[in-house]
Amino acid sequence: MTFTLIDWIKYTFWGVFGFMIIDFVIAFSKSFWEGSFKTSFLPYLKDILFYVYPMYFLISIVSLDPTEWTLITLFFIGGLSLIVKYVMDIIGRFKPKPETEQ
Fold this sequence. Notes:
By secondary structure, the chain is mainly alpha-helical. It has helices spanning 5-34, 42-60, 70-94. The chain crosses the membrane at residues 12-32, 44-63, 69-88. Keywords: Membrane, Transmembrane, Transmembrane helix.
């Protein structure tokens, strides 16, 4: 494990995709044990398109940044916020849902 900037970018992507996969596996296993397959790939594909691809785009245009650190900082803030989002989603999956009154 090295600590160059390229490696930190790689670790950030690994963290985002790792938590995305953990969230999917938990959602899939809960729906499997409940007997209903309500888990779909579409929300995760949407997250890749709306969250991960813009992070990749930020890294690809770093050469246009005159300060050479603004876009990299935005990338790491975005990566950290995505990891926090998925951690909160994972925690939310384990909270009991309130029963509706009929």
